[in-house]
Amino acid sequence: MSNASGLPVGRGLAYLIIAGAVWGTAGAAASLVYRSSDMGPVALSFWRCAAGFVLLLGVHLLRSRVRPVASEPLGRWMLRSAATGLGLAVFQGAYFAAVPATGLAVATVVALGTGPVLIALGARLTMGERLGPRGVVAVAGALLGLGVVVLGGSGATVRLPGVLCAVASATGQCAMTLLTRRWGRSGGTDASATAVGTFGAAALCLLPFASAEGLVPHTADPARVLWLSAYIAAVPTALAYALYFAGAAVVRSATVSVIMLLEPVSATVLAVVLLDERLTSATIAGTLLMLASAAWLAVTEARGAARQEEPALV
């Protein structure tokens, strides 16, 4: 099914699945940056957004030359960019602050676990999107999986400052998701231009705080920090967010939030492989529950879109 943005819902779901899986690598890469340098979370968030802006702008300009796309009024684009950029700045800055404060696993789980609840409530109140019985079960199952991962004796340490930062991150993600979906329903938006404007605005929001923290890190291994930072900017930022903005414009907000729980799944795998965190039976069970919930809701959304696409019998 196509909608106001012209992207089929099935393709939007695929974009979101890829974005969610790739996002999970950002936290692990950030942890390695922290281990190799004194770069702070706000500075890392700024460089991520600034480099992401440059990469996305280059792709957008190249795409526009190859295939011209419809533009929207400058004032509307600037308003959308400022709003979603502020949400992204809070989302990224608070998350990267939560990682060193309470650990990668807890920061990711709390941020992504709070998000579906806030987004489901926000979508119901602002856009009238109903979860339905299956959606409620899927969200509940996903949150139960998160709880099992956190409380299942994984050895993670829960610290209040880090948890509060993670909740703030979820709030920023909620605002960004709801705004993207709302504008996507109204049509006339280009996901590529949205991503460019959002990252430009986010970088501007973060710049003064990153300058106060220190933009240039001290490190004994600058090459390692550079390639890790480049990876964060290119893959879980430019690539993942381009896919996210395209998918979030056409898929229901609650479904988006649950599919994004693929991030803690990939983050958990990387935490075990790269950061020597211990894998327990509770971690495995919670991860499988999150995967099952995300898959169920995605299939439900795709089937609903296919039914709407079928011509009525007369």
TrEMBL record:
<dbReference type="Pfam" id="PF00892">
    <property type="entry name" value="EamA"/>
</dbReference>
<feature type="transmembrane region" description="Helical">
    <location>
        <begin position="281"/>
        <end position="299"/>
    </location>
</feature>
<protein>
    <recommendedName>
        <fullName>EamA domain-containing protein</fullName>
    </recommendedName>
</protein>
<dbReference type="InterPro" id="IPR050638">
    <property type="entry name" value="AA-Vitamin_Transporters"/>
</dbReference>
<feature type="domain" description="EamA">
    <location>
        <begin position="161"/>
        <end position="297"/>
    </location>
</feature>
<dbReference type="InterPro" id="IPR000620">
    <property type="entry name" value="EamA_dom"/>
</dbReference>
<feature type="transmembrane region" description="Helical">
    <location>
        <begin position="191"/>
        <end position="210"/>
    </location>
</feature>
<dbReference type="InterPro" id="IPR037185">
    <property type="entry name" value="EmrE-like"/>
</dbReference>
<feature type="transmembrane region" description="Helical">
    <location>
        <begin position="45"/>
        <end position="62"/>
    </location>
</feature>
<feature type="transmembrane region" description="Helical">
    <location>
        <begin position="104"/>
        <end position="123"/>
    </location>
</feature>
<feature type="domain" description="EamA">
    <location>
        <begin position="11"/>
        <end position="150"/>
    </location>
</feature>
<keyword id="KW-1133">Transmembrane helix</keyword>
<feature type="transmembrane region" description="Helical">
    <location>
        <begin position="160"/>
        <end position="179"/>
    </location>
</feature>
<feature type="transmembrane region" description="Helical">
    <location>
        <begin position="258"/>
        <end position="275"/>
    </location>
</feature>
<feature type="transmembrane region" description="Helical">
    <location>
        <begin position="74"/>
        <end position="98"/>
    </location>
</feature>
<feature type="transmembrane region" description="Helical">
    <location>
        <begin position="230"/>
        <end position="251"/>
    </location>
</feature>
<comment type="similarity">
    <text>Belongs to the EamA transporter family.</text>
</comment>
<dbReference type="GO" id="GO:0016020">
    <property type="term" value="C:membrane"/>
</dbReference>
<keyword id="KW-0812">Transmembrane</keyword>
<keyword id="KW-0472">Membrane</keyword>
<feature type="transmembrane region" description="Helical">
    <location>
        <begin position="135"/>
        <end position="154"/>
    </location>
</feature>
<feature type="transmembrane region" description="Helical">
    <location>
        <begin position="12"/>
        <end position="33"/>
    </location>
</feature>
